[in-house]
Amino acid sequence: MRRAGLIAGTACVGVVVVMALVALFWTPYDPGQVEASQALAQPSAAHLFGTDGFGRDIFSQLLVGARICLQVGIVSVAIGALVGVPLGIWAGMAPGRIGRAIMRVSDVLYAFPALLLAILLAAARGSASTGTAMVAIGVSTVPAFARVAHGATRSVMARDYVAAARASGIGWGGIARTHVLVNIAPVVLVQTSTSFGLAILAEAGLSYLGIGTAPTTPSWGRMLYDAQKYLYQAPLQLLWPGMFIAVAVLGFNLLGDGLRDALDPRLRTGRHDD
Amino acid sequence: MSESTPEFALREVRRTFHRRRGRGAGTVAAVDGVDLDVMAGQRLGIVGESGSGKSTLLRMMAAIVAPTSGRISFRGHRIDSARPRDLGALRSSVQMVFQDPNSSLDPRMKVADIVTEPLRSPLVRGRGDAPADRRARLVEVLAEAELEPDIARRYPHELSGGQRQRVAIARALAPEPDVLLADEPVSALDVSVRAHVLNLFVDLVRARGLTFVLVGHDLAVVRHVCDSVAVMQAGRVVESGPVEQVYRNPRHDYTKTLLASVPSIRAHRG
Amino acid sequence: MTELLSVENMVVGFEGASRPTIGGISFTLRAGQRLGLIGESGSGKSVTALALMGLLPDTAHLSGSVRLAGRELVGLGDAKMARIRGREMSMVFQEPMTALDPTMRVGRQVAEVVRLHCARTGSGHTRERVCRMLEEVGLPDAERIADSYPFQLSGGQRQRVMVAMALINRPELIICDEPTTALDVTVQARVLDVLDRGLREVGAACLFISHDLAVVSQICDDVIVMYRGQIVEAGPVAVLLDHARHPYTRGLVATARLDEVAPGARLRVIEDFWDASQERR
């Protein structure tokens, strides 16, 4: 059962990755090429998934959209993890007040939705872009990473192997490197995967609202927004980007769970202890 | 070092903990004014039930837990308020074995890395005569702990309970300490495995002339390994002396209760 | 002599394991008898307890015959098994902290066992019965204990609550799986005493599982020795102590007698008596 989830997750993520890679070198049409005569074409050999209201090839847009989706996921999760995990570890290892203070600050940040941050950033920069969306999503995932890392670090710090390391004079840095990082890696990994899925979802949402990816760039969320105008004429147009968003989010969640099990040395050998 | 300087000297040591939930919320004194000397070569047992403060006391001697008040010296130097980098003498000559190897061995490290961890400590390396060749030392201490050399490549969960505790002992021996602190090292083990591990402790302590402090709840175990004993109840030492004297002629009521509680084989229920 | 529990050729295997954890064991337990089951970790003694209680995980496969008061338990549905558990037989686990629900006051948890099996009693009556039971297991401040959550109690108090839960429906059989292993010697002595008196009062039979022969001998008259999923020897404690037939049993007896060895002298170990490699084929 565990394997099934891992395989399904890898397959879903693999589809998105392959699409993004292909889009780097080749798309059937220029995704931005407007061809009014071809508007709202049904799926055919020429246009695999049909065309949108401006006559742009949907398949080409989906391929490029996959690249943007991964780009947003990677950058925003990297921001969240690189800031949040060290903060969480620091808070978990620092005794008493310092640790609590860090977590309270993180809680305050938690109260700001990505949407609000995106609006603020876009206002500050003067325009909305994939960049502002990525930063906004990234910053808003920092508290989630900090929280997960904090909890896991606390439970590692309560273990006697940390006491043993301290008793032999291993410093805090050494303990963080050899014991804490390794032991919290699985939960951070799961959080990374889940956040990746959420980031993709958030970007789609922001783009849909017009404060994410700019109109000329075909993000999946943007495509959803464009497609809703033709809900009754061409419902399939809505289905494609929606389906790929779902596949990507589901894939990253399944992958996270599968990896957690696969990385646990206690589960790996499948021994039964009496 | 002169005869009269004890390895450890504890004076009026107190440690309180804050309890935020449950009954008795507020400040609880785990260790409540303990005076104790441990001489070089002494084998001291600290006995008491859980909550008596014996483990906290041992952890303060290892400078993992700081005392709330009082003084703790190791070879004449204060360790209770020292900065981590000033604990060199303590860290390089004192090692500790814990009760539960499930908790004291990092599940994601291989035995080889676990055992050689103390050798990577800057404070141990700072000592002139610390073993330099980690791989050679690993093979040596595994043999001393009566473990097969090929165990080095395994993870803790692949070992039996007795093997895990031997790995913990091998780790403690790796930097060639003079003092061994052991916190209930056989309480989590099967009785049949206990005999092995106790034999190992007796042999090691005797062969190397280690100073040994054993914390336990079973006076029979303490009597087997130690030459003196301190009985703790509710954070205080209520009785202490040579182990045979306390074992044969306990004066404090609590010591009598402890002795009576050690289960012995009864052929007939009565 | 009526047979209360009769186990015949019980085999338990786990998915993916090459050999069964329990390799066909048979034993019987008379009404009111106290039988110790002794073995090292990995011998299969805890799996035996779970198998008898019908609490094996889904990955386990059980075959053979287990009869309680003449009724076959192997193959019995989960719902029917649940009705037997707690009423006709009950269990005391090693770790009361995990066996008790941390979010529920212990009085309610004990009362639940009563209510599950006797629907007719009113809640006031149940409460009274719970408190009386808690007093019987040596918790004099029963009202206060009943209103406490598990984390507010000490390990010994929690284990007494477990004993109270096991005894309250006056079952015919109580299975104790290492009930005092997690406890200090002083607390262990008190819990054993409470268990001993409770068993006598209720008149229940007991299967007492432990790795410590000394502890088993405090409660039981007879003992069976398990090694690698097999019973290697069975008999009265007194006979096993001095005239064990199997060398493994002699080794177990020797390791349990710390008091017979001079302080600091080498303790005898099982390998002095029994070479484990003989068995490994």
TrEMBL record, chain A:
Gene3D superfamilies: MetI-like. One of its GO terms (biological process) is transmembrane transport. The chain crosses the membrane at residues 7-26, 70-93, 105-124, 130-149, 238-256. The keyword Cell membrane applies. It holds the Pfam family BPD_transp_1. Residues 66-256 form the ABC transmembrane type-1 domain. It is found in: Cell membrane. It is a multi-pass membrane protein. Belongs to the binding-protein-dependent transport system permease family. This is Peptide/nickel transport system permease protein. It comes from Propionibacterium cyclohexanicum.
Automatic annotation (TrEMBL), chain B:
InterPro entries: AAA+_ATPase (IPR003593), ABC_transp_ATP-bind (IPR050319), ABC_transporter-like_ATP-bd (IPR003439), ABC_transporter-like_CS (IPR017871), Oligopep_ABC_C (IPR013563), P-loop_NTPase (IPR027417). Keywords: ATP-binding, Nucleotide-binding, Transport. It holds the Pfam family oligo_HPY. Residues 8-259 form the ABC transporter domain. GO terms for biological process: peptide transport; transmembrane transport. GO terms for molecular function: ATP binding; ATP hydrolysis activity. The keyword Membrane does not apply. Belongs to the ABC transporter superfamily. This is Oligopeptide/dipeptide transporter, C-terminal region.
UniProtKB/TrEMBL annotation, chain C:
Residues 5-253 form the ABC transporter domain. It is found in: Cell membrane. It is a peripheral membrane protein. The keyword Secreted does not apply. One of its GO terms (molecular function) is ATP binding. InterPro entries: AAA+_ATPase, ABC_Ni/Peptide_Import, ABC_transporter-like_ATP-bd, ABC_transporter-like_CS, P-loop_NTPase. SUPFAM superfamilies: P-loop containing nucleoside triphosphate hydrolases. One of its GO terms (cellular component) is plasma membrane. Keywords: ATP-binding, Cell membrane, Membrane, Nucleotide-binding, Transport. Transmembrane segments: none annotated. Belongs to the ABC transporter superfamily. This is ABC-type dipeptide/oligopeptide/nickel transport system, ATPase component. It comes from Propionibacterium cyclohexanicum.
